[in-house]
Design a protein that fits this description.
CATH class of the largest domain: Alpha Beta
Number of domains: 3
Protein name: DNA mismatch repair protein MutL
Shape: elongated
Number of strands: 22
Largest sheet: 8 strands, mixed
Family: Belongs to the DNA mismatch repair MutL/HexB family.
Number of helices: 17
CATH topology of the largest domain: Ribosomal Protein S8, Chain: A, domain 1
Helix content: 25-40%
Distance between the termini: 88 Å
CATH superfamily of the largest domain: MutL, C-terminal domain, regulatory subdomain
Strand order of the largest sheet: 5-4-3-6-2-1-7-8
GO cellular component, one term: mismatch repair complex
Keywords: DNA damage, DNA repair
Organism: Chryseobacterium arachidis
């Protein structure tokens, strides 16, 4: 039998390796930006066309490469950052594996122009599909200029799996933000199809966050700082009102490198315990500085996971430091263990042992009722209510084993047949049936039915007495440009007043001024709208949520009575479209057996 195992040709091996390193245009953006930082650049420009599918260009003013280094950079496992095995365990640079450029060149057309500051001329290299084409001297600026064209042109099966431009560009923005946030001392620019998306100047960490995510975030940020022997922690967390249902604005960095860690995210979440509504996650930008020998960044092809030697200690550090900062800024209760010196002086003056004739200071006594049960009162109230209800219904209801079904909708006289419970639900008695109602869910169905005509061209506008201003970040500006064509026919009148400020002059009839900002934020929050129908579906859903009330908002009986009438007109449906109940029948035979 002949031998069947053979060495793969280099270009095939590079294409296979590229599958780990190059998943989409954003993967290339990450590698090239990190290379520019490692090259000592102070100014980095990223130019994108068609969300990176046709062009990704990174221009930097770093130290550049020599003629030989420029050629060697595209060889597999060629790197300037590792010389021996020991270097792997103390990596301080972004790139180090020596396979990124080879992988990128294997699935695209790559051109590099680079020049060192002391060199008279630079080098121009062109590689196509992993095959070297030429290398010539060229007049070019100091630093490096990488152009990656026609990604996956030679691997059409990979190219067809790329998402549409909106999705791919959002991934590019994600990578750009991660790099830019960690290096506020560098200038960054991002251009997409000739439009300037970001122009980030050098500045403080706070300034960089605000430049990326918009000025409206600044008042919400709380500084975080802790410096101990083995670790430094600094950054910002947003106040509880800055929390979101999505995990978009959660950033962890170690030694200037972005990484993902559900474990550390949990530490931050625990620090906000009791401060966030269910389903919401905090916004944070946290930076760790640790000895490189205490971490391992070589456990993931995209280098987005990091292994820590003392992760349990870091977990505790994150949680305790954030809790303390929330306390300092009066976001959560905090104990102050530092004694007030004025209190000591007062005690000295009033103590008889000092011989100053002062009276004694009696310390307050704390009396604890050890028999107190915080749930007893609530339980007793509930028992009394149930007993009263039972007596009332025993007088008016003939309980039978098989209660007859009646028409709930023909009599509009509620009289004493409606009662609000302390937990926000309502009891509704009609004939032989008693129902427990969730008025919030019922109201949502009524609103959904009444707002179905919210479609393009059918909604009246309500002019605002004073225009509102919505400060957009760059992502929201991009999202606004993609949906602004729908908004006028939905009843909105708005325009970009200056820079990133959206001026709102009119809103759809029925949308309160206090709801406008949150409504727009929700529209901009979704990743993408694949079609007009998808946008309209999401818009309708948000509109219904804005108009809906919680069951706790129905306090007055007359409001509940009107809602039940409206709900009755719909046929008294038992379930929401998502399967949740609007009401259920209370079996009073079960109550009778308890007495």
């Amino acid at each position: 039998m002949s031998d069947i195992i053979q060495l793969l040709p280099d270009h095939v091996a590079n294409q296979i390796a590229a599958g780990e390193v190059v998943q989409r245009p954003a993967s290339i953006v990450k590698e090239l930006l990190e290379n520019a930082i490692d090259a000592g650049a102070s100014k980095i420009e990223l130019i994108i066309r068609d969300a990176g599918k046709n062009l990704i260009q990174v221009v930097d003013d770093g130290k550049g490469m020599s003629e030989t280094d420029a050629r060697m950079a595209f060889e597999r496992h060629a790197t300037s950052k590792i010389r021996g095995t020991e270097d792997i365990f103390k990596i301080a640079t972004k790139g180090f594996r020596g396979e990124a450029l080879a992988s990128i060149a294997a699935v695209s057309q790559v051109e590099l122009k680079t020049k060192q500051k002391e060199a008279a001329v630079g080098t121009n290299i062109y590689i196509e599909g992993g095959v070297f084409q030429f290398q010539d001297p060229v007049q070019t600026a100091d630093g490096s200029n990488f152009l990656v064209k026609n990604l996956f042109y030679n691997v059409p099966a990979r190219r067809k799996f790329l998402k549409n431009n909106n999705v791919e560009f959002r991934h590019v923005i994600d990578e750009f933000q991660r790099v830019a946030l960690a290096h506020e001392n560098l200038e960054f620019s991002l251009f997409h199809d000739d439009d300037a998306v970001f122009r980030l100047r050098k500045g403080s960490q706070m300034q960089r966050i605000v430049d990326v995510f918009g000025r409206k975030l600044q008042p919400q940020l709380i500084p975080i700082k802790e410096d101990i022997i083995w670790c430094k922690l600094h950054g910002y967390v947003a106040k509880p009102e800055g929390a979101k249902k999505t995990r978009g604005e959660q950033f962890l960095f170690v030694n200037g490198r972005y990484f993902k860690s559900p474990y550390f995210n949990k530490a931050v979440q625990e620090a906000f315990e009791g401060l966030l509504l269910p389903g919401y996650v905090p916004t944070f930008f946290l930076f760790l500085e640790i000895d490189p020998e205490k971490i391992d960044v070589n456990i993931h092809p995209q280098k987005t996971e990091v292994k820590f030697e003392d992760e349990h200690l870091i977990f505790a550090l994150l949680r305790s430091t954030i809790k303390r900062s929330l306390g300092i800024y009066n976001i959560s209760p905090s104990l102050d263990f530092e004694r007030d010196p004025h209190l000591d002086e007062m005690m000295q003056k009033t103590s008889p042992s000092k011989g100053n004739g002062g009276g004694t200071l009696k310390m307050p006594e704390i009396i604890v009722d050890r028999d107190y049960n915080p749930f007893l009162e609530e339980r007793e109230v509930a028992q009394v209510e149930i007993q009263n209800l039972t007596e009332m219904y025993h007088q008016n209801i003939n309980i039978s084993a098989e209660p007859s079904k009646i028409n709930l909708f023909e009599d509009e006289d509620f009289d004493e047949d409606l009662m609000r419970l302390p937990n926000g639900y309502w009891l509704f008695n009609k004939g032989d049936e008693t129902l427990m109602l969730d008025l919030g869910r019922m109201h949502r169905l009524v609103v959904a039915e009444n707002t179905k005509p919210v479609k393009r061209g059918t909604t009246n506008s309500h002019a605002l007495l004073f225009s509102l201003e919505y400060h957009m970040n760059e992502i929201e500006k991009n999202k606004y440009s993609s949906i602004k064509k729908y908004l006028p026919e939905l009843g909105f009148e708005m325009s970009i007043a200056h820079e990133s400020v959206l001026r709102i002059d009119a809103v759809p009839e029925g949308l309160k001024e206090t709801q406008v900002m949150k409504f727009l934020e929700n529209l901009f929050d979704i990743l993408e709208y694949k079609s007009e129908e998808e946008f309209m579906h999401f818009y309708q859903n948000q509109w219904s949520k804005m108009q809906s009330k919680s069951r706790f908002d129905f306090i007055y009986k007359k409001d509940a009575e009107q809602l039940i009438k409206d709900f009755t007109a719909l046929g008294f449906p038992e379930f929401l479209p998502n399967g949740k109940r609007c009401f259920f029948e209370i079996p009073f035979n079960d109550f009778k057996n308890k007495f």
